[in-house]
Amino acid sequence: MEVFIPTLETARLHLRAFALSDSSAVERLAGAAAIADTTLNIPHPYPQGAAADWIASHSERAQRGNGWTWAITTQSGGELLGAIGLSLVAQHQRGEMGYWMGQPFWNQGYTSEAAVAVLHHAFTIIGINRIYAYHFVRNPASGRVMQKIGMQCEGCQRQHVRKGDRFEDLIVYAVLRENWVEQKGCRHSV
Prior knowledge:
This is N-acetyltransferase. The chain is of the alpha+beta class and 190 residues long. The chain has one domain: Gcn5-related N-acetyltransferase (GNAT) (Aminopeptidase). The protein is built from 5 helices and 9 strands. The model is unreliable at 184-190 (pLDDT under 50).
């Protein structure tokens, strides 16, 4: 059963459901050592076939209503740049945002632009009250994305997760619907 994952658009980006045809691009982009190093759940080396399994899992999450994952692509040409997702805890009306951007596309504002679109969707369409996200202390660039989209730092969780053979400190950021100031340039499509 195919589940609807809404298309979100910004001035430069088209956020859409992943397709199995994206598998090789996901393996190439997410398979970079720098991506795996700065994310919790992306392995390195990236196993062949793992992208297809990951993409296949998106429909079930959306069907359950507890999460959506979007492919971040360009408006012109549809090139895959990265991914952004939102996992929900409906009982508490909160969601966790996570993302990765292919290394060739770093420092161009794409992640922030995609994140604003997801915040807009979560707050205005889904009706979420709180969105939060984490980043490794040693990955301040991810924290800058969170700051740019209006999230506030809530603190550090020391040695909260284990990545490989080392424990990682996490910085948590969040924004509440009542404190969110909508940034312009986001369109929602059905």
